[in-house]
Amino acid sequence: PVMDRIYFKSIYTSDPDGHIVELATAGPGFAIDEEIAELGTHLRLPPWLEKDRAKITADLKTITRRAPVSV
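Below the sequence we write its predicted structure tokens.
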């Protein structure tokens, strides 16, 4: 069955050696719940992980977002 992972959809299969292989779509993508310019500035969790937000964030270190560098 196709699994809805909020940010993408995926299906799973096994290769001949028994390894689980995930095939995923490219979309809809991470911009479904925040603006492109804001991507990566807030922790977004899928609904099934929201109940664990405090535990997940407890050990995260604060990071500082740098301005993009022109190449």
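The beta strands are 3-4, 8-14, 20-28.
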